[in-house]
Amino acid sequence: MTLFQEYKNSLKKIDVEEILDLVFYRPLAFLFVKAVYRTRITPNQITVLSLIFGLMAAVGYSFGTHAAYLIGSALCLLYNVLDCSDGQLARLKKNGTAAGRILDGASDYIVTMALYFGIGFGFASRSPHPWRMWLLAWAAGFSNAIQSGLLDYYRTRYLDHVIHPVSILGEGLKEVEEAYERLKMAKGRHFEKVIIGGYLKYSALQRGINRPAAGSVGAAVTIPAEEYTGKNRRIMRLWTFLGPTTQLTFLMAMSIIDRLDIYLIGIFAGGNLIAILLYALQHRVDIALQLKTRR
What we know:
By secondary structure, the chain is an all-alpha fold.
């Protein structure tokens, strides 16, 4: 197997990968994965390490100086590379688990939330009107959560239709629920219980917000993978521009020029505008598929 083929095998389906991941972060992550492949380092250990770097970055931003922002952006870079590495290692070693995927996703949300707290503290300390800075940080953070939730839902739905033999949003989620019930009966393992329990609550909320109408593409309808892919590939690629890597790279760029205000306004105004437009476009695609399946 060539090195390039091995790299491709370490990726998720390319349709759902962010462009910046494909051209920059995942190649760096692949080099790290190759370095640790024959060691006893596990994907979950890499996830925890990436979480530590992400939290350190949040602390850096809380100091509110340009120098601290530069340090924070460097730590964000390390965090994102490691965040890519855990999944790539799991795919190459074929030892990924549902709990590991949930832990990886949870760490992303923990780091994102911590970063907005850090930015809020740092930004407020530099302003004569700290409450305004906190309001902007909270607005951007809440917008980020909504945008990430939409991306997660449509990416998961896309993978369900295209490659997964078991639906992540259906039977796959039931398996996680059953595993969680067994886990609750076990002693200890509190961290896993909190992470998986939180994931199930988040999934329930996500499904409630995006609940499909009967007969729609999100309901129990069989649509050929080729047909679904053909209709959704372009919109799926556009959804990825709301992904965490794109947003994190935007944060790092604005940190370098000491303009975190542009970052926060961009996430709140620009990100929400893009999300609304994509949601409208996605609705049109879904309606077109729904009508086709009724014929």
